[in-house]
Amino acid sequence: MRSDTRLVHAGRNPQAHAGAVNPPVYRVSTVIHPSVAHMEESGKTPYEGLVYGRYGTPTSWAVEEAVAEMEGGFRAIAMPSGLAAITGALSAVLKAGDHLLVTDSVYFPTRRYCDTILSGLGIETTYYDPLISAGIATLMKPNTKAVFVESPGSLTFEIQDVPAIAEAAHAMGALVLMDNTWGTPLFFKPFAKGVDLSLQAATKYIVGHADAMLGFITAKDEALWLRVKTHVASLGHSAGSEECYLGHRGLRTLSVRLERHQENAILLATWLKRRPEVLRVLHPALPEDPGHALWKRDFLGSCGLFGFVLRDVPKAAVDALLDRLELFGRGYSWGGYESLAIPCDSGIKRTATRWAPGGSTLRLHVGLEDPDDLIRDLEKGLRALTGGV
Question: How far is residue 264's CA from residue 272's CA, in Å, rounded to a whole number?
Answer without folding.
Answer: 12
